[in-house]
Amino acid sequence: MSPENAATAAKLNITAGNRSKTVEMIVTGVLIACSLVAILVTVGIVFSLLFESLRFFERVPMSEFLFGTKWSPQTALRADQVAADGAFGAVPLITGTLLISFIAMCVATPLGLFSAIYLSEYASKRTRDWVKPLLEILAGIPTVVYGFFAALVVAPMLRSTGESVGLNVSSESALAAGLIMGVMIIPLISSLSDDVINAVPQSLRDASLGLGSTDSETIRNVILPAAIPGIAGSLLLAASRAIGETMIVVMAAGLAANLTANPLEAVTTITAQIVALLTGDQEFDSAKTLSAFALGLLLFIVTLILNVISLKIVNKYREQYD
Amino acid sequence: MTSMLTTPTRLRKSREASETRFKWFGRGAIALSLAFLVFMVGSIILQGKGALTTSEIAVTVDLSADNIDPNDIEATSFDSLMKKSLRETFPEVTSRGDKRKLYGLLSVDLGFELRDQIIADPSLLGGPQKLWFTASDDADLVLSGTVDRNLDEENRRMSDLEISWLETLEQSDSTNREFNTKFFTNGDSREPELAGILSALMGSILTLSVCFFVSFPIAILAAIYLEEFAPKNRLSQFIEVNINNLAAVPSIVFGLLGLAMLLNTFGLPRSTPLVGGLVLSLMTLPTIIIAARASLRAVPPSIREAALGMGASPVQATFHHVAPLALPGILTGTIVGMAQALGETAPLLMIGMVAFIADVPSSIVEPAAALPVQIFLWADASERAFVEKTSAAIIVLLVFLVLMNLMAIYLRKKFEKRF
């Protein structure tokens, strides 16, 4: 090789090395940028909700929003009058949301937990392989389908059943929406609890069975107590799903802001009101439209707290036995 | 302990009974959940079946030169010609109200249907022809048997007179039921018998495409960074917590974000697949990232070490060796995320994709509907026939979801590698 050639080769090598270094840096930069999108989305959510909510709270005091018991945003009489803009007390919406979520949890907790216990402790591998995906289908069905079914089949069914025993059931009763929502979150509870129960070490089972207890005694007295924090976490996560669920309540629960604990009456929820406020004709900047963002912020904060707590519990618990 | 020894049989029996009871609780819970699934899907399929067929009514139309000028077909008033032909079929109808009811047996599109048939086959011209037309939704419900003819007249939309006309038509073999192609080739319509899902389906496809092209690259790169490059510091941890939380944020909140940011701040066009796709992509990001990270983690370190040992740079090792091996798992996660996005309704309502859209959208900046939103809109409609349409649209949506999930399962089975 002539010295000249060697020099060129060395030069080429150096540029190639430099180039690959630049490429590495650019690629790493792009990668970092992409993962920052996740933070950006969170920041975007917080800021857009906060910003619009602050504008809402300029018009309606926060105390009225949080503690007022009358919700009727539709009754704007005169645009130039703040007081005429209707009542923005979110209490009926919060109680409505809690009532429907409570009914849902009453349905989903026993069904989901018992499914999880049976699948993880009793079922053969074959049954497990079949039943688990079938249960997951319940989670894969779009919520608009549940909503349609609740409004079209379940609500009339409850109404006629109620009539036959002399009860007056509203056609938009909290019960119909809650029942169907409960079915929707069964797979969430069952699959999360299943993971938690499976994470309980085999040695605990063996010890209990070795002392002569039956399978069910082992489950009740050993496995469930050991798994309780994880199960609580999965229930919290399911509750947060129920609180944030929209389509079922929009289609089956209606818009009547009643302050009641009677599951046979119509109630409305935070999510259903957000949809009602923001679809159809809307004047931007009115307290009515802005109130949807305040409700959204409330929803975001509540579900965020539930999620953070439950994720923490579930993760901490997983590590304990790993 | 003594009691256990002295009365072994009684205690054992009660313990055994409680064991069996417990087991049956578990079985019962599963059976109940699955029974509900079968009940729900079954009742929707039974209801939607009706919308997959449609009724046709044959009317003899005089297409001679008196009525239609063969040289200038378009000049004809097809509507009045159709009405005339209907009156000739039932000459006994004289009052104005009854005539209107008679025209109501056919869909409002009757004139267009006649025109289209003539233009498709000009040889029809010249004399009377027996042609088929779409029946109106109320007539269809009677003909298909969904509405009971023996019901009290006050409890149904069709009067006895109209039903007697339909029965006359049935006796002269002038009614027919056939596969409802209109349901798959028409856009939305105020008339149930003409409403189809093509516009909503196209809207969904466009929205999902936007969602895919935005979320897939970002998610995959973010997952690669977090799994392969990120130093274990506070920032990475913060990103991770963020992603996990985003996965559990209610979907409607993403809709609010889209409304406040994309529509009001950036001024993107309302009701379009572009905005819908962007909002959905924010929602699917965490799903895909989590799945992608899991499948990157499943690639054994030996692959990385071998590549690095041969002189590959970290970027080369990742993109040439690790990522391709993880790709099937990433694709599976992506398809599952897309299936979720396809069924998502609430955020689309927030950004105005609830408008009545009859035209089939052809670009991502045109207003469009989406399949689940169409279901929501039809479920709200008052006409009885829309119940069937809604169920049929749900069937179509479920078929797509099943196909996507089968594809995901197939990919997983085919490319699954255990290292």
Automatic annotation (TrEMBL), chain A:
Pfam families reported for this sequence: BPD_transp_1 (PF00528)
Positions of transmembrane segments: 26-51, 98-119, 139-158, 165-189, 222-243, 290-309
This protein's record includes keyword Acetylation: no
Coiled coil stretches, renumbered: none
Protein's cellular compartments: Cell inner membrane; Cell membrane
Signal peptide: none
Record's keyword annotation contains DNA-binding: no
Superkingdom: Bacteria
Stated family: Belongs to the binding-protein-dependent transport system permease family. CysTW subfamily.
Protein's recorded name: Phosphate transport system permease protein
Upper classification of the organism: Bacteria, Pseudomonadati, Pseudomonadota, Alphaproteobacteria, Rhodobacterales
From TrEMBL, chain B:
Localization of this protein: Cell inner membrane; Cell membrane
InterPro entries according to UniProt: DUF3333, MetI-like, MetI-like_sf, Phosphate_PstA
Pfam families in the cross-refs: BPD_transp_1, DUF3333
Main location (coarse class): membrane
ABC transmembrane type-1 domain ranges (all copies): 201-408
Membrane topology classification: Multi-pass membrane protein
Residue ranges crossing the lipid bilayer per the database entry: 24-46, 197-226, 246-268, 274-296, 348-371, 391-411
Key words, A-Z: Cell membrane, Membrane, Transmembrane, Transmembrane helix, Transport
Protein name: Phosphate transport system permease protein PstA
Source organism (scientific name): Paramylibacter ulvae
Lineage: Bacteria, Pseudomonadati, Pseudomonadota, Alphaproteobacteria, Rhodobacterales
